[in-house]
Amino acid sequence: MNIVPQTSRRAFLKFCALSASLLALPPEAARLLAEGLVRRGRVPVIWLSFQECTGCTESLTRSAAPSLERLLFESISLDYHHTLQAAAGAAAERARDKVLAAAAGELLLIVDGAVPTALDGACSTIAGEANLSLLRRCLAAAQAVLAVGSCASDGGLPAAAPNPTGAYGLAELMRRGMVPVRPLLNLPGCPPVPDVIGAVLAYRVAFGTFPPQDAQGRPLAFYGETIHDRCSRRGHYEAGRFAKAFDDAGARAGWCLLELGCRGPLTHNACATLRWNGVSNPIESGHPCLGCSEAGFWDRGRFYHPLDPAELPPAPAPSDRVQQGAQVYERHCIYCHDVDPARLKTLPAEVPALLRSDRIRAHRFRLEDDDMEALVAYLRHAK
Amino acid sequence: MSIHRLSLIVLVGMFAAAQAGSAGTPEVFSRHDLDGDGYLSRAEYQRLQQDCLERRGERCRRALYRFESLDADGDDRISEDEIINRLGRRHRGGRSEPSRE
Questions:
Q1: Is the pLDDT assigned to residue A8 strictly greater than 60?
Q2: Is A360 an 8 Å CB contact of chain B?
């Protein structure tokens, strides 16, 4: 099935370029992604929701890049999603079983929620069938499986101590031999960033594989760095400026939330770079990162309790060069720009050319090369 | 509404905006110009000083000129030219271009 006629060529190529960019693929990958999507057509998908809160489905339906309707109508054939199809009742269950038979071996299975195993799976059922039984049947017909959210990845909240339902994530169920083993990609997060779900689905459809993963089965493109690595408040962390309470002057001024229990330094996710549909993330909204994309985060001590300093990565001391750059910024840039250089839109490497281009009137200063280099070093440090 | 009519309205709007812009309203040159009038008022400058103090510390606040030092013409507001001229004299490279009239 050719998907191009359903949208304009320009929009289709833009969608491919955006997805390739989100996945940190090289420039030529956008073309390969486009060719792959056209060649492979729509992939049959079944989405199972087990012990969960529906937040992951909310996340999918809020994906802006690519949007859900584009995913549904052009990249995948979402044949079963009982949360979205609740009104269809038994007809939805029949449609699912029909797809399981017709698309055996080609099916992409998506699971959100943990799977209860205690009491023969009686703790959670769908249409009278235990989650574990339904998962086994679907996995048997699946080519691969995508675990969306922390609950499907590692058990999440249902598996938190004392885990009364005997809940597990997919990887643990496969490891224990309780379900068929299939290629698995984990997208932990409570819920995961919507753009990540969409981009990974596009990659799978186009290339027939999952993108490169880390040791926990997470895509490196989105989970390769910590929240702390890309945090918009990182400059305050380096400078030792920490909010002490949620309503103090430091919190209002956007200082680092580490002492309010932020787990950004230990948490791998794309919240700080992608934000939620490019809008914001918890830290930018004034709330510390809870570390929801790391396994077992519910049982890792109290929320809002500062991390043990021994767990923190060592903070590099600002070099003299960086200090010099900070002074250049304070003596010149700050009159027109934000006092926090991390908010500058221009990339540090592009600053010298911009300053010397005479394109901006207030930038007609002729900074000496030494000061310019120090300024760039400082801006890099602050970013 | 047809596309042609919509385009005409947009073009007329752009022309009107260009005319308004040429009437002498200064461009906003600083993100601290909160009311967007093209100048930093005394209140806006005080807010910048306070922001520096709270978010960067005392060193940053002291690095800022006093309001009076920047307000060369004494009209109780700071223009882009006044900042360019004042800063141009201070930094190490010196100022190489005349200010725009």
A1: yes
A2: no
